Every structure is written in structure tokens, then in C-alpha cells.
């Protein structure tokens, strides 16, 4: 177990290193000149050159990347080109909002998805089952920004129940979390359904039923704990899917998280911030996968490690 | 004389028949068919040009017209902020979605298949390196990467397709890698090798045909992802550029005004949802029908 863990950790670190290398390389070769952004349009060629030298952008690729890694080793993500601040500080200021949204979104997804999946499994083969599965497909096929905007329209503009974007109170959290929840629930519903159908077929469920237990008890105490295991591993993977989508949700709802930070930085070619947010997201994804790997055998002793 | 034993094709016919029995698949195929028709017949389905700005397409205050607005309901779905007919833009937008869907997904499939099959069949250092690279790509926040690339490269239809392909090939590669490795050690491949068949022959005649069902399934499901990704990039203003209509950029252009004119978000949004859902339904149906391990489910 310890050896396995150590190997997975090492692997994760190597993957993260690879992510920084690829991102750095892409930003290096792409025809975007951050110096032009910093210097402004009217800057003379001399000013441009001196800024370039100051930032070390005149150096060859490996020198620049080496410097970046050296900084990273000292937990230094660099300084923003355009905002007078450390990238680490900018991200630290925004990260809590993103994590809050992520937690609320995943909670919504799991709640809606599990309910749908269990219900569909119990009504397997009926119109309810088909309807729920169609709904779960619709959820995973719906564009995030459209659902977000429509929810904003219905609950914010039309009914006036909830604020139109922003951040601060619990009311602000409901719509973005619901947007994520409605869309992501589809994956959980489908997974929960097939897992539940599988478990309901098992002998021990039949035994429980034969013992004369109530239907609710059979489902909640016997079937559910077994069926839910593969779903839990999925939460880890879901963190990755979430990390990819933060830019869109945060921009629709004006949520002040790292997604908005990234979006502004991308538009202004503020490379240190882009690097920082990509790295933080990749850490989230890798941690999520690692968690799925570690938690699964802990809660399910049937998954034995080699 | 003896070679006249005509082998029937039960499996192939079975696939189509079983597909046709699924109402959700049929619904999906219908939506895809309608979208293709709309894309091809757009000039005949609407009297307007997609970028035509109508004098009577805005209210006196300069606001867009709601659905059914205009003289004698000339604009069935209303108009946009520039007084253009929304239905016309959605019909022409279908072209963008389909072209990018097919283009980007084709590229992703090609790269994914090449990487997956090469790594799975030849293994060795090259295979290991390729798969480590796909592992790495899996850890990338895909949408963030796509947004970053699309924003920095001045977007055009080709760039958008390329960016989408760049983030979408990974899953195909991983699935095909797993399948190829398990195929490569099977007896019939070993036998083929024993009688002296070259790698090219084995790959083309034996490995690829066995992978075809998976490629078809992922190809179909992938179009759904592609349609959504294109819409998202266009919604952020870094996908297909106005005045060329795309379902995503119609919403991008009217986003600031959506509180007063929600139809400008609703209808193109519905189109995106319908097309993505259709490809998902058909892809899922195909998976059930083509994958023998899933067959006993129903």
C-alpha cells in the first residue's frame, strides 16, 4: 500500500511537471507577445526591448523554463505582468470562491444524480426509467452557459427570487451550483442506475427480501451501500471535469474565482497567471484522480491492490 | 461448386434492425437529419441572407423584435440586436456546427486512432512515451487549454476545429490503446504473424476492423462534445467570429441584452442542446448494439 502510494505520488508529480512544460512551451511558441500588451501600442522599440530584457523574455526557451521551475521549487509562481502582484497571492485570493462553488456544485450533482439513478433503477424498463435516462442525457448535452443564462433569466429576472450574478451570500451560490448540478447529474444518474441494477440482481438482495425486510430497508441498507461505491470514485474524476469548466460558469455568473482570473489573464496574455491557474487546475485534477484511487480500496475491501 | 456457400450477413443486418427498434436512437437520427437538411437547404428555407439587417427588424427604440414580430410575423423567432432574422442565423449556424463537428472530430479520431493503435500494437519505448503523453494530457484542464489556444491564435473556422481536435483526441487514444493491447495478444493475430504477415497487413486487415465499432461509437459521441466545445468557445467570443453565424456566437453577441431579449439565448441554446443530445443518443445506442458485452443488458 505504502509503495503503491509512493509510486502514484511520484507519477503525479511527473505529470504536473509535464503539464507545466507543455503549457510553458505552448505559450512560448504561440504568436502572442506579452511585451506588446505591457508596453502599450505607442511604445517605442527601445522600451519594448528593455521590458523584454527585464522580464527575461529575450532568453532562450530552456533558460526561461528553468527559471520558472526554480521559482516553482521555492513555491514562487512568479509575478503578474500587468497587475502589480504575486501570482500566488492573486490565486490565493480567488481560490476560496472557486472551491466553494465546486463543493456546492458537486453536492448538487451527487444529490440530483443519485436520486435520479436510484429511481430509474427501481423502475427499470418503464417509462419513468426512459424519461430519467433521457433527462440525464439532456443534462450532459446541455451547454453550461445556456443553462446558466436561462436559470438567471427565470429566477433572477422573471421571478426575481435570486440575485443576477455576484458573490457574497448563500443566495448568490444557488444558481451557479444548480447549473453545475443539473448538468453534471447526468453522469452520476447513469452510473448509479447501472450500478444499482447490478446490485439488485445479487443473491444477498434476494435473501434480504426473502427475510421479509421492508422494501425501503432492502434498498437503503443493503443495496445502496454496495451500489454507491463506483459512484464515489467518480467524484474524484469529476473534480477534473469541473476544473475545465470554471471559466464559463464563473464568467456567466460573475463569480470571482480563479476562472475569471484566468479568463482576464488569457485575454491580456498575462503568462504567469495563465501558468499559475493551469497548474492549480492540474493539481486539482491529479489530486482528484489520486483520491479516487486511494479512497476506493479503503471503502471497498474487494478492490485489492497488487 | 463447393465454394457457393453464401454466407448471410446476420450481424450487420441485426445491428440496423436493433438500432431501429430504439425510439431514442430514432429521435436522435431525426434531429441529426433535420439539422443536416437545415444546413444544406438554408438558402431556400429562409428568404433572408444571414447578415441582412432589416429596417423593420428593430423597434423604434432600437430593440430587437420578439418571436413572431415584424410585419405579418416576418421574423418567426424574432430578430437580434442588429435587426437580423434570428431563424435565418440559426439555420446558417447549423452549417458552422456541423462543419466544425465533422472536421474537428475527424482530426481527433485520426490522431487518437494513430496514437492509440501505435502505442497498443508496437508497445516498447515509443508506446510507453505516447501513453505517458496521453496521461499528461488527461491532467490538463481541457477547456482551459482550448480557451487559451483559441484566444491567442486569431480564431478562424480551421483554428477552432484544430483547437478542439487538440484536446479531444486523448480519450479516443486511451480507449483504442486498451483495446489494441488486448487484441494484439489474441491467437488469431499470433497465427497471422506466424504465417509471416507484415505489420501493415495485420493492422489494416485485422486490428482496425475489430476496432471499428469503438471508433464509430466514439466518433459519434465525440461530435456531441465538439458541438458543445465550439459553442462554448464562440460564446466566449473566441470561436467562430461574427458576422459568420454560429449558435454560440449568436448568444455571445446578445449576452449583455439577454434580460430584455431571452429568446436570443433560448433558441440557439435549444439548437445546441438538441444536436448534442442527438449525437449522444445515437452514440449510446450504437454502443449498446455494437458492443457484445453490453448486449445482455436489454
Automatic annotation (TrEMBL), chain A:
Pfam families: BPD_transp_1 (PF00528), BPD_transp_1_N (PF19300). Keywords: Cell membrane, Membrane, Transmembrane, Transmembrane helix, Transport. GO terms for biological process: transmembrane transport. SUPFAM superfamilies: MetI-like (SSF161098). It is a multi-pass membrane protein. The chain crosses the membrane at residues 12-30, 99-122, 134-158, 170-189, 227-253, 273-299. Its main location: membrane. InterPro entries: BPD_transp_1_N, MetI-like, MetI-like_sf. One of its GO terms (cellular component) is plasma membrane. Residues 95-296 form the ABC transmembrane type-1 domain. It is found in: Cell membrane. Belongs to the binding-protein-dependent transport system permease family. This is ABC-type dipeptide/oligopeptide/nickel transport system, permease component. It comes from Rubellimicrobium thermophilum DSM 16684.
Automatic annotation (TrEMBL), chain B:
It comes from Rubellimicrobium thermophilum DSM 16684. It is found in: Cell membrane. InterPro entries: BP-dependent_transpt_permease, MetI-like, MetI-like_sf, OppC_N. It is a multi-pass membrane protein. This is ABC-type dipeptide/oligopeptide/nickel transport system, permease component. Belongs to the binding-protein-dependent transport system permease family. One of its GO terms (cellular component) is plasma membrane. GO terms for biological process: peptide transport; protein transport; transmembrane transport. It comes from the Bacteria. Its main location: membrane. The chain crosses the membrane at residues 24-45, 98-121, 133-152, 158-177, 215-240, 260-282. The keyword Membrane applies. SUPFAM superfamilies: MetI-like. Signal peptide: none annotated. Residues 94-283 form the ABC transmembrane type-1 domain. Pfam families: BPD_transp_1, OppC_N. Keywords: Cell membrane, Membrane, Peptide transport, Protein transport, Transmembrane, Transmembrane helix, Transport.
Amino acid at each position: 500500500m505504502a509503495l503503491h502510494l509512493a509510486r502514484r505520488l511520484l507519477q503525479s508529480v511527473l505529470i504536473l511537471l509535464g503539464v507545466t512544460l507543455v503549457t510553458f512551451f505552448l505559450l512560448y511558441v504561440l504568436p502572442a507577445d506579452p511585451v506588446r500588451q505591457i508596453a502599450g501600442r505607442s511604445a517605442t522599440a527601445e522600451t519594448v526591448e528593455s521590458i523584454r530584457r527585464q522580464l527575461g523574455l529575450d532568453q532562450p526557451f530552456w533558460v526561461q523554463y528553468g527559471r520558472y521551475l526554480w521559482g516553482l521549487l521555492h513555491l514562487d509562481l512568479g509575478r503578474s505582468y500587468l497587475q502589480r502582484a504575486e501570482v500566488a497571492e492573486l490565486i490565493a485570493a480567488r481560490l476560496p470562491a472557486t472551491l466553494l462553488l465546486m463543493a456546492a456544485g458537486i453536492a448538487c450533482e451527487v444529490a440530483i444524480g443519485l436520486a435520479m439513478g436510484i429511481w430509474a433503477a427501481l423502475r427499470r424498463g418503464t417509462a419513468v426509467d426512459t424519461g430519467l435516462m433521457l433527462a440525464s442525457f439532456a443534462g450532459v448535452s446541455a451547454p453550461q452557459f445556456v443553462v446558466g443564462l436561462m436559470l438567471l433569466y427565470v429566477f433572477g429576472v422573471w421571478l426575481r427570487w435570486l440575485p443576477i450574478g455576484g458573490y457574497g451570500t448563500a443566495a448568490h451560490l444557488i444558481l451557479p451550483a444548480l447549473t453545475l448540478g443539473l448538468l453534471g447529474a447526468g453522469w452520476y444518474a447513469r452510473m448509479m442506475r447501472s450500478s444499482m441494477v447490478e446490485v439488485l440482481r445479487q443473491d444477498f438482495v434476494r435473501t434480504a427480501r426473502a427475510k421479509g425486510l421492508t422494501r425501503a430497508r432492502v434498498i437503503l441498507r443493503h443495496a445502496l451501500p454496495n451500489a454507491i461505491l463506483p459512484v464515489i470514485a467518480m467524484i474524484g474524476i469529476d473534480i477534473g471535469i469541473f476544473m475545465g469548466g470554471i471559466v464559463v460558469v464563473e464568467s456567466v455568473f460573475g463569480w470571482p474565482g480563479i476562472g475569471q482570473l484566468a479568463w482576464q489573464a488569457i485575454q491580456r496574455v498575462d503568462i504567469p497567471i495563465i501558468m499559475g491557474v493551469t497548474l492549480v487546475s492540474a493539481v486539482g485534477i491529479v489530486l482528484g484522480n489520486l483520491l479516487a484511487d486511494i479512497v476506493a480500496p479503503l471503502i471497498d475491501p474487494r478492490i485489492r491492490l497488487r | 461448386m463447393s465454394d457457393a456457400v453464401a454466407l448471410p450477413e446476420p450481424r450487420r443486418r441485426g445491428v440496423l434492425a436493433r438500432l431501429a427498434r430504439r425510439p431514442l436512437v430514432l429521435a436522435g437520427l431525426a434531429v441529426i437529419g433535420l439539422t443536416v437538411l437545415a444546413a444544406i437547404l438554408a438558402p431556400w428555407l429562409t428568404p433572408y441572407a444571414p447578415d441582412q439587417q432589416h429596417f423593420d427588424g428593430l423597434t423604434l427604440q432600437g430593440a430587437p423584435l420578439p418571436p413572431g414580430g415584424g410585419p405579418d410575423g416576418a421574423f418567426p423567432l424574432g430578430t437580434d440586436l442588429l435587426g437580423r432574422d434570428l431563424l435565418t442565423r440559426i439555420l446558417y449556424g447549423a452549417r458552422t456546427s456541423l462543419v466544425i463537428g465533422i472536421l474537428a472530430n475527424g482530426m481527433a479520431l485520426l490522431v487518437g486512432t494513430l496514437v492509440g493503435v501505435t502505442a497498443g500494437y508496437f508497445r516498447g519505448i515509443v508506446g510507453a512515451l505516447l501513453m505517458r503523453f496521453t496521461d499528461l494530457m488527461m491532467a490538463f484542464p481541457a477547456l482551459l487549454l482550448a480557451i487559451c489556444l483559441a484566444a491567442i491564435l486569431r480564431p478562424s473556422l480551421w483554428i477552432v476545429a484544430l483547437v478542439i481536435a487538440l484536446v479531444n483526441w486523448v480519450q479516443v487514444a486511451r480507449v483504442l490503446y486498451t483495446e489494441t493491447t488486448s487484441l494484439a495478444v489474441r491467437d488469431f493475430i499470433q497465427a497471422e504473424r506466424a504465417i509471416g504477415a507484415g505489420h501493415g497487413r495485420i493492422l489494416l486487415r485485422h486490428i482496425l476492423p475489430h476496432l471499428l465499432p469503438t471508433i464509430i461509437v466514439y466518433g459519434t459521441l465525440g461530435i456531441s462534445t465538439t458541438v458543445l466545445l465550439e459553442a462554448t468557445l464562440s460564446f466566449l467570443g473566441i470561436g467562430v467570429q461574427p458576422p459568420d453565424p454560429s449558435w454560440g456566437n449568436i448568444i455571445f453577441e446578445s449576452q449583455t441584452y439577454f434580460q430584455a431579449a431571452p429568446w436570443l439565448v433560448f433558441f440557439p441554446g435549444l439548437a445546441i442542446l438538441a444536436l448534442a443530445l442527438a449525437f449522444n443518443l445515437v452514440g449510446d445506442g450504437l454502443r449498446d448494439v455494437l458492443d457484445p458485452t453490453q448486449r445482455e443488458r436489454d
